[in-house]
TrEMBL record:
UniProt feature, compositional bias: Basic and acidic residues: 274-284
Protein family: Belongs to the methyltransferase superfamily. RsmH family.
One GO BP: rRNA base methylation
Species whose genome carries this gene: Methylacidimicrobium tartarophylax
Intracellular or extracellular location(s): Cytoplasm
Protein name as it appears in the record: Ribosomal RNA small subunit methyltransferase H
Keywords: Cytoplasm, Methyltransferase, rRNA processing, S-adenosyl-L-methionine, Transferase
Gene that this sequence comes from: rsmH
Amino acid sequence: MGNSISAEGAMDGSQHEPVLLRELLEAAAPREGECWIDGTFGFGGHAVALLDRGARVLAMDRDPEAEKRAALLQDAWGERLSFVQRDFAEMEAAVSGIGWGAVDGVLLDLGISSGQLDDPSRGFSFRWDAPLDMRMDPTGPVTAGDLLQELGEEDLAKLFAVVARPGESRRLARAVVRARGQGRLQTTGDFVTAIGAARPSHRRIHPATRAFLALRMAVNDELGSLERALPASLRLLSSGGRLAVISFHSEEDRRVKHFLREHLLQKPAATSGAEERPQPEEGFVRQARFLPTNEERLRNPRSRSARLRVGWKATRKDL
Ligand SMILES: C[S@@+](CC[C@H](N)C(=O)[O-])C[C@H]1O[C@@H](n2cnc3c(N)ncnc32)[C@H](O)[C@@H]1O
């Protein structure tokens, strides 16, 4: 699959530090008075950097814990910071809810925060024996336990296949079906035992990493949210606006890359004759990818698998 993920799906619980921040600020260059959406507020690291540059920020996060952290920043930033607890896929409703029209920038820093990972009660980590929950929004309709109890073997294999090779995903699915048949699948610890990942590994990636990541992505429909958020961002961005997405997993990055490429506008002179096909009215005039420096990788292990993609929006008449 060519996945590159660090322990526990990109998060290692180290001190929170916004990933690829310098690259984001240099490339996407938020400016005074601009309107930005930070769809993944988390600990507010990126949001504060945007605010520092003079932007107004609509912060979103599915997790109510993030709202508490945003409330702590409210005194410092006043009405330049708004928070909406909602899936970033619904950013258009959130934008009109606070009375904005178009925006100048959209930032998505995908995945979960170290705070979520390090809270044993949330069930995101295999480091503790905890309820099989894994919901970013604790009122969400489905827990990890529900999926493990209710999905058939075929669907379980599909769930794991997002991050595992076909043979491995079928083996994981069979192990889940066997364990639940014996009534031994209630906690994260049971899940680790069931998939035979309890043995310590000398490899950099713990054997349970991929299985936990796949389960978390399914519980929160993470790829579905991303697929809905990308076109919503394009619709919301003004001409000259920037879409910036930081991903930690090849399946996410692939979707972002394809979206940017599919919506890349060709300059009129570049299209000619038989190859000419109808061009969309708006899209991206260019796109670029950024990786963490070696220095950031060493300082912040969470950054190791991170990739930032930025697209610059334009309309055809601006070309
Ligand atoms: C990697 S953390 C973001 C860290 C943040 N950029 C910072 O500097 O503190 C990802 C956050 O996005 C949230 N999140 C992930 N997917 C989401 C979605 N579809 N809608 C809203 N929030 C989401 C998670 O709850 C988590 O708090």
